[in-house]
Specification:
- The complex is a heterodimer of chains A (234) and B (132).
- Chain A is of the alpha+beta class and 234 residues long.
- Chain A has one domain (3-221).
- Chain A has helices spanning 33-42, 61-71, 83-93, 144-154, 174-184, 201-207, 210-221, and strands at residues 7-8, 13-19, 22-28, 44-50, 53-59, 114-123, 129-139, 157-160, 167-170, 185-189, 191-193, 196-197.
- Chain A has a four-stranded antiparallel beta sheet.
- In chain A, helix 2 packs across helix 3 (83-93), helix 5 (174-184) runs antiparallel to helix 6 (201-207) and helix 5 (174-184) crosses helix 7 (210-221).
- Chain B folds into two domains: 5-101, no CATH class; 103-132, no CATH class.
- The chains are: A alpha+beta (234), B mainly alpha (132).
- The interface between A and B is medium-sized, with 27 and 29 residues.
Amino acid sequence: MSTLQFIDLALPRKIAIRQGSAIVSYFVNPIAEAQWLKYFDGIVSTAKREGNKVENHWDATAAGIELVGESLKGGANAGSTPLAHQLAIANVLTSAYVPEAAESAFQEPMMAEAVRLWCVWGAGDGDLMRRFKNLVHFFEAPTAEQYQRYRRDDSRAQIVGGSRKGMTIYRGAQRTLATLYDELIASVAGYALNGVALVGREQIARHMDTYHKVAAIAALFSAGTPAIEEDEEE
Amino acid sequence: MTIDVTRDAEGLRQAVGQLLERGFVESRVSRSLDDADEGSGERMFGSLPPLTLSPGYYKRAEFLLWLEEQKKVGVATTDWTLSEADGLVAVAQARREFERNHPPCGVCGALQDSPFAVSCCKCGTKFVRRGE
């Protein structure tokens, strides 16, 4: 089995960026939970009513650049990373997402509390970034109290500029989601620590990348997508 | 001035009221849609009561309505924050106001379009007012 079939959370991530015909590689050390929480706090998520429509705005650029700057500190490229590369690295670090059902090759019936993630993690020896599609997080069923905690924090917001025409600034529930992940995670697939599969709640909670934690458990708490058959156009 | 949505009870009461009113009209529109052509269907949805507050109020209001439902069926934790308790009071006020504006028919239970309806919109029962 190739080592690339697991994400090894103990190793630095090699992120290869194409620049013309050359490839520039950066090494990012595992990102601590505190750094991720600072990143989440820096995301700007707003909504404003314009007539009958709501304009949503989401921007993590500044938070991503700050995260990359801290992650590369002390490395060979520290201080000399072009902005375009910083943005590219931030995109890779935050690339975990839940694939659409049609995209996923997950054919067998999923357990209700299993979430599959796809992500671009790092490059192998060939300097090519690889998309991992075999990452699965298995959760215990959340309690009503845990769901309430999530919705309580997800619905926190501040309004600037008046209750009607003002802008809503969402405060985000990522901190709560990271905590709930640690409480609910049962097992994972596709992750390793120093070449050994990651097992046990305590080990997973301690070593799992916090962005992956939040991406996975956010899907657990989100409403599912009903399978809809559209009427054919006449 | 910055408003913390979770502490703005009056804003939340209005948001819940608007969601209840919209839900009521939506259910009426959905029932009528089966008989409607595309144009009139769009007009019907266009006539939904407007949501006039900043979007954050409605997200919190939906959470409070969920909390109210949980409480009603007895599965919610009683470990509420003060802002949730205040929010549930706002939901109760909004619901009372909604029920005053849409009293149920004494025969079939259908909610009426207005408290001044002379007969039930569903079963046709004539309403008798006090003093008539």
